[in-house]
User: Which sequence fits this backbone?
């Protein structure tokens, strides 16, 4: 296992990088819509939602790029995990309050049209899957093809 | 040199080497961490800057607009009914089909003041042509010609499907002509997108009022929904209006 872990971690790292890049990339083109998606959770005043909605896509893309490069993997994985936990908490709270929204995870979601059911369960399971990837990296941050390994003088 | 001493020297060297390696790892971890935090902070800052510097064009607020410049009023009855709609939203078209005529009759009969707020939250569903914003802007231009309701109704009667290109500007002008809105000013405003910045602003105010979906119906300041957060039926709507009228 000592030889395979770095490769498993590499896969987890690239997978999590892809998640962030796609999630951020789909939102970055329309920051007003991103703000509305955040606001649909009805957790903060609109002015705050606006700032969160604008910063979030850029943050996600930056996290994705850092993971792709493999720089300070344990830290980026930790930040990823914190973000994912916040997202899951948000979805759970929306579910508990009976809001009819698209989670906005991979879109500038917002409120759903009448008649369509939100897929909160699926969204949470998916986020838990991503959280598992972050968990692997927190536990075994050493991976191949990473800036970290070059800086640490590993091969 | 005795064998034991040589071993100790080797051991000492190894320990020093290990310590140096550990020190190097600590340094690398520290500086990469600082770098990462800096990069993430900058990324968030970029987002904030992009948002606050967003240029939506010159804001031209239609003179006919009421309620902080967000709505167009029909009738002047004692009960105020606010309807927030996106011209691309299928649920809004359903609402218009079910309750639109009733509301407009009540407005004409001066039972209610009907305030229709066009908002643009579905721009992402028109293949980049921003039909929601264009149509809301067109509605504002129609209001300036005193034909808001005419255009509003004909746009809903001809609602394009989501994920299509929406109605082209030419098509909007053509439909407007079919309901007696023939002014050149209107056509120019549609083609030049004169009121697009206004539509964006009105949508901002909609969000700022903590509304998140369309159609949103508000009777005398209280949002009205059917059971399970659904769009209210015509029956519920008329009942609520009658109750509000006293």
Assistant:
């Amino acid at each position: 296992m000592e030889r395979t872990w770095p490769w498993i971690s590499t896969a987890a790292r690239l997978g999590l990088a892809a998640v962030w890049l796609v999630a951020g990339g789909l939102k970055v083109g329309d920051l007003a819509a991103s703000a509305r998606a955040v606001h649909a959770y009805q957790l903060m005043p609109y002015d705050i939602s606006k700032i969160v909605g604008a910063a979030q896509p850029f943050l996600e893309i930056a996290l994705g790029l850092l993971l792709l490069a493999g720089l300070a993997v344990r830290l980026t994985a930790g930040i990823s995990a914190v973000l994912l936990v916040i997202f899951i908490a948000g979805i759970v709270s929306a579910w508990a309050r009976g809001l009819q929204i698209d989670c906005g995870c991979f879109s500038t979601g917002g409120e759903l049209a009448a008649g369509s059911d939100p897929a909160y369960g699926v969204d949470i399971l998916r986020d838990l899957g991503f959280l598992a990837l972050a968990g692997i990296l927190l536990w075994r941050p050493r991976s191949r093809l990473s800036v970290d390994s070059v800086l640490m003088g590993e091969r | 040199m005795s064998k034991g001493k040589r071993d100790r020297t080797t051991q000492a060297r190894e320990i020093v080497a290990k310590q140096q390696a550990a020190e190097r790892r600590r340094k690398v971890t520290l500086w990469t961490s600082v770098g990462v935090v800096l990069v993430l902070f900058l990324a968030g800052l970029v987002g904030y800057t992009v948002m606050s510097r967003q240029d939506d064009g010159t804001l031209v607020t239609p003179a006919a607009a009421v309620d902080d410049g967000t709505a167009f009023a029909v009738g002047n009855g004692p009960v105020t009914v606010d309807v927030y709609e996106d011209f691309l939203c299928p649920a809004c078209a359903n609402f218009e089909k079910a309750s639109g005529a009733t509301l407009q009759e009540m407005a004409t009969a001066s039972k209610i003041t009907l305030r229709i707020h066009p908002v643009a939250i579905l721009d992402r569903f028109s293949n980049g042509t921003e039909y929601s914003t264009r149509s809301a802007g067109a509605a504002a231009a129609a209001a300036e010609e005193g034909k808001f309701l005419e255009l509003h109704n004909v746009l809903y009667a001809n609602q394009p499907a989501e994920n299509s290109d929406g109605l082209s500007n030419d098509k909007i002008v053509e439909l407007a002509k079919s309901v007696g809105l023939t002014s050149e000013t209107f056509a120019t405003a549609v083609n030049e997108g004169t009121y697009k910045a206004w539509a964006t602003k009105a949508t901002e105010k909609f969000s700022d009022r903590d509304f998140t979906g369309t159609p949103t119906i508000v009777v005398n300041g209280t949002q009205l929904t059917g059971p399970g957060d659904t769009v209210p039926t015509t029956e519920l709507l008329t009942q609520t209006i009658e109750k509000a009228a006293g």
